[in-house]
Amino acid sequence: MEEATAGLxxxxxxxxxxxxxxxxxxAAEEMQHSTMLSKLFRILDDGKLFYNIENFSVKNIExxxxxxxxxxxxxxHGKLSKAQAVxxxxxxxxxxxxxxxxxxxxxxxxxxxxxxxxxxxxTKQHIDKIEEQMEAVNRMGAAAKENLxxx
Length: 151
Prior knowledge:
This protein is mainly alpha-helical.
């Protein structure tokens, strides 16, 4: 899911030219999230256990990943606006938090709490940064409407 999001943000960085740095940074951060998650697999390999897995919805992860991959395809091959990119990414990041992807499962490994908590915090930071971009896009849209009304 994190890698799929990185792919989407890379597509945005190529298509939304005046936001290319913003999206490239988010893509790199998503790959860092993926690396952090891969460390959790090592915890399992070390014999640590995870709990509450039955409360973790694999279907939700699969559905969100499919949504992300479809959004990436559309971003690479269809029409794309700044507003659309920002809205889609905000939806994805909020669904990651609301889906409890980093808070449902628990482990007897201390590292798990640290990694899961960090991923929750980083995802919330993404939401904040994307919301700032949404405000900027909205301001540009309002300014454009105001300029049109002058004519």
